[in-house]
Amino acid sequence: MKKHLGIWLLGLVALSPVLAQNKVKLTIESWRNDDLKIWQETILPAFMKKYPNIEVVFAPSAPTEYNAVLDTKLKAGTAGDLITCRPFDKSLELFNAKHLESLNNLPGMNNFSEVAKAAWSTDDGKTTFCVPMASVIHGFLYNKAIFRELGLTEPKTEAEFLATLQKVQASGKYSPLVMGTKDQWEAATMGYQNIGPTLWKGETGRKGLINGTQQYNKGGFLQAFEALAKWRPYLPRGYQALAYPDSQNLFAQGRGAIYPAGSWDIGTFRQMNPKLELGAFKPYTFPNLGASQCVINDHPDIAIGLNAASKNKDAARTFLSWVASDEFAQLYANALPGFFPLANVSYTVSDPVAQTFLNWRKECQASFRTAYQILSRNANPNNENDLWNASAQVLNGTMTPKQAADMVQKNLASWYGPQKGK
Amino acid sequence: MRRRPFPWHVVVFLAPAVVIYTLFMIYPLLDSLALSLQNKPANGPQTFVGLQNYHALFTTEQWSKPFWNAFWNNVKFFLIHMLVQNPVGLLLAALLVTRIRGAWIYRTIIFTPTILSVVIIGFAWKLILNPAWGISQGILDAVGLGNLNQPWLGLESTALPTLSLISVWQNIGIPMMLFLAALIRIPDELMEAARVDGAGAWTVFWRIQFPLVLPTVGIVAVLTFVGNFNAFDLIYATQGALAGPNFASDILGTFFFRTFFGYQLQPGDPYMGATVAGVMLLIILSGVLVYLFAWQRRLQNIQF
Fold first, then answer.
1. Which helix (H) or strand (E) holds A150?
2. Which of A53, A83, A91, A159 has the highest CB neighbour count under 10 A?
3. Separation between Cα atoms, residue A220 and residue B48, nearest integer Å
4. Distance between CA B188 and CA A363 in Å, rounded?
5. A240 and B66 in contact by Cβ < 8 A?
6. Residues with Cβ < 8 Å from B202, sequence gap 6 or more?
7. φ/ψ of residue A385, rounded to 5
């Protein structure tokens, strides 16, 4: 058998140029080098089985180098046909520089909601230039064993949430809420932007900030800082100096009950401690403040667009339409639990916790992090950095919610036209 | 009279250093200064704006506030080094020069952190001080002071002093070695003569050793000054580019990094970044000049 292998291989090598002649070859530029195996072994074979005339190659570069590498390749005209799109301004720059093509009339584009498309659309929302691939969803993970031991149930409202934390606190055995403020971004991303959208009515509030009708120091945005401040007594000892990996470790070791999470954490915890009994509940509501409709933070993270200089646009469009289909959604969601395809098509995820996160899309409205679209374009003061600092300080007790909200608003109003003087 | 030939060998010997230094130090420095005099509006070409960036850095609140915060933090960072690192370094050197048993072991151990990567130092101290599993809690518990433990790196009041002391711990080997070298050079006859005259160890140190290591004190001070006002790596490795909490550990190096390269969603601003770098150059230059003209010249007057 071994003797023949060489001959077989030789034959394959000799034949392959003949085979390749009828095929169109597409190359995907991406920063997801972690996913190389998934693309090569799961996603692309499924596509090529359906479209035997198109060969697709996944060619990723390192995440930290991707932007620079891609810029260079686009300028030199050597970039692949398909470009993986970072959310918001980075891709908008590429579109404005005419490196990405408008995909408004791509079949399958109507599978996406406005929220899903916002990260890869022009500021007026009229042109979309990337097919949304996946988002991450925020919520809370909890340790089922601890909940069982202390007889707790999943909280639905703020009052229930705080009562649950209180009970864990009273037991004295576990940290009620596992999060630190040292790295600052968790306070903003898993804290403020996790529970906030319900209070500021999701897209209504987020768009209100952009057009200047809503302010960070009024209404839902201020209430969100106030709600965040109530977490303070339940954080682990020395939380001011706990970094993100510290809280991950604390929760993975079963030393804490509830963990404010992003869906990407599911995969991390499965890996860190496969025995951990994970459960998930969605961001709680505030019936006493008139916010009973849940809104989740369904943050767009990754998309794919068409290189305007591609020589194989028809084949590339075929591939992009397939990315918008349910088949792609099903494959991608299961290969990468915690990253959720954004298409409004039905798919299921085998990881039960990831499926729980996914179900919230049906029960709740969706929005995304407020500072990501337009509002963080200024270098100094920068809205996202301000939100990190303000949220961390609210939890550290060095700023009151009102002071934090005023600081963020004042800095935004200092440069952003629609907020001037507000 | 025969004219002396042009000293070509001098040119040849100087050339490598001059070329490399010009190419990799002087040119980038001047280029960076030139960049700080430019700006680029959102939709337009890069234009010459004179000192406008410097004006903006010092007069507009959103630039001057973080700048002065970083500056004063940097001054505190420097003062802690001057008050702890250098006196303790001198003390260690004075102890080691007495030829106590196993001096070389102490010397090696004390010098070891200096040769470790800052990333390792930052990581190790983050673990030591970690409130969840750091050994600082255990050590304090053992002596019954457990409730004195604080999240040292997470409080606005303690973050900067803690980082300064970590930096002192790391770098103390350098002043120690320099002082040690200076102390060894002191002729034994001087010390013996003093002892014959009835001077105790304390008097010998203050009257003989200290005056003779004064030039080294100047060198160490200026090295500390330049090192501290250029510092960046330890803060970045331990606290990240936002130098938290609430910029309590932000020094000029981290402020420059954020301004020039940007951070997360904050876009980088090479023009303001170069401006911050220009001011840092000015600060360091004036410190070095003070040393050269005030300190070194006086020493020379004494010596010669």
1. none
2. A83
3. 45
4. 86
5. no
6. none
7. -60, -40
List, in order, residues 6 or more apart from A23 with CB less than 8 Å away.
A53, A54, A55
Burial B265-281 (b: 16+ CB within 10 A, else e): bbeebbbbbbbbbbbbb
Name which of B78, B58, B69 is nearest B247 in CA terms. B69
Mean pLDDT of chain A: 92
Q: How far is B279 from chain A (nearest CA, A)?
A: 18
B275-301 confidence digits (pLDDT tens): 999 999 999 999 999 988 887 777 665
Alpha-carbon gap, residue A198 to A194, rounded angstroms: 9
| Dihedral (CA of A390, A391, A392, A397) sign | positive
Query: In Å, how far from its chain's centre is CA B191?
Result: 33
Q: What is the dihedral of CA A8, A9, A13, A19, to 10 degrees?
A: 50
Counted residue by residue, chain A has a size of 422
At B76, which amino acid appears? K
Question: What is the residue type of B240?
Answer: G
Q: How many residues appear in chain B? A: 304
Q: How far is CA A149 from CA A146, A275, B186, in A?
A: 5, 16, 72
Q: pLDDT at position A333, please?
A: 92
ipTM of the complex: 0.88
The C-alpha angle with vertex A81 and arms to A78 and A87, in degrees rounded to 5, equals 100
Q: What is the pLDDT of residue B267?
A: 87
Say which of B126, B242, B262 has its CB closest to residue A184. Answer: B242
Strand partners, A25: A55
What pLDDT digit, counting tens, does each position of A332-386 carry? 999 888 899 999 888 999 999 999 999 999 999 999 999 999 999 998 899 999 9
Q: Grade residue A292 by pLDDT with cuts at 50, 70 and 90.
A: very high
> If you search the block for the tokens 């995304």, which residue do you land on?
A368
Phi then psi dihedrals of residue A93, to 5 deg: -55, -45
* Cβ within 8 Å, pair B245-A384: no
Q: In Å, how far are A77, A307, A310, B93 from A99, measured between CA atoms?
A: 10, 6, 10, 63
Confidence of residue A4 (pLDDT cuts 50, 70, 90): low
User: Is pLDDT of B229 > 90?
Assistant: yes
Q: What stretch of H or E contains A198?
A: helix A193-199
The token duo for A369 is 């992090």
**Can you tell me the distance from the alpha carbon of A343 to that of A257, in angstroms, rounded to the nearest whole number?**
33
Q: Which residue of A has its CA nearest to B152?
A: A241
Average pLDDT over residues A273-289: 96
- In the numeric block, which tokens belong to residue A406? 């005023």
Who's near B197: CB < 8 A, 6+ residues apart? none
Query: Does the CB of A189 have a partner CB in chain B at under 8 Å?
Result: no
Among chain A residues, CA nearest to B237: A183
Q: Is the pLDDT of residue A232 over 90?
A: yes
Find the mean pLDDT for residues B188-214.
89
Could you give the 3-state DSSP secondary structure of residue B17? Answer: helix
Residue A253: in which H helix or E strand, if any?
none
A376 touches chain B (CB under 8 A): yes
Among candidates B126, B245, B266 on the partner chain, residue whose Cβ is nearest the Cβ of A379: B266
CA-closest candidate to residue A201, choices A289, A122, A312, A316: A289
**Are A382 and B63 an interchain contact pair (Cβ–Cβ within 8 Å)?**
no
Query: If we measure between CA atoms, which residue out of A349, A353, A361, A255 comes closest to residue A299?
Result: A361
Tell me the per-residue pLDDT of B67-104, one tens digit each, with 9 for 90 and over.
999 999 999 999 999 999 999 999 999 999 887 888 88
